[in-house]
Write the structure tokens for this entry.
Amino acid sequence: MRIDTLSTFPHMYDSVMGESIMKRAQASGALDFHAHDLRDWTHDRHRTTDDDPYGGGQGLVMKCEPIFEAYDDIVAQGAAPYTIFLTPCGEPFDQGVATELSEKDRLLFICGHYEGIDERAYTLADKCISLGDYVLTSGELASMVIIDAVVRLIPGVLGDEGSSIDESFYDGLLEYPQYTRPANFRGMEVPSVLLSGDHGKVDAWRRQQSLIRTARLRPDLLESANVSQAERAFLLSLRD
């Protein structure tokens, strides 16, 4: 997969993309990442990417001209990318969206800053995404979260193909509790089933704990979770 980002602060990506799984994904060839500086498509000596909003008001609005020029040049570098804008007006980001994006060959994230982006630039968008009902300083931060969630779903990136399947939200539930050595720490013991060596019992325990944890912490997820009739009956029993 190739991922491009277009922003006024491309070096914000250096640390995130140069460490851990993102670094390994690039080293293995699974990810081809490019961070573009929007200022490279400006034409004044101050490399201006923003201006005062028409109609007045506070803050500055990102200009559409450099965004369109950058888009044209980036698209010319290969197959047309699936273009994403980060905006509070966008579709809420979740694991389903991450899975959808992981199946694309090329993604382009256009990241806003300041007060917002000239509305005309959104005509380039294939999808607009919001991380949630709060305000960030810039779209770079939001794009890093999405890129991380997407890249880990690319086959081979995590190494163990089961790693992403066991994680929270894969089937609509929160992940079960995890433990490692020592088996007893300050009187807190690891559940005995995990020490039994019986993989069937372990799997059943983990599934049950996912159901319990989701019901307790995120009951809203259960409406659309992949849950059997027997498991729904178990969830109902928890209310008694």
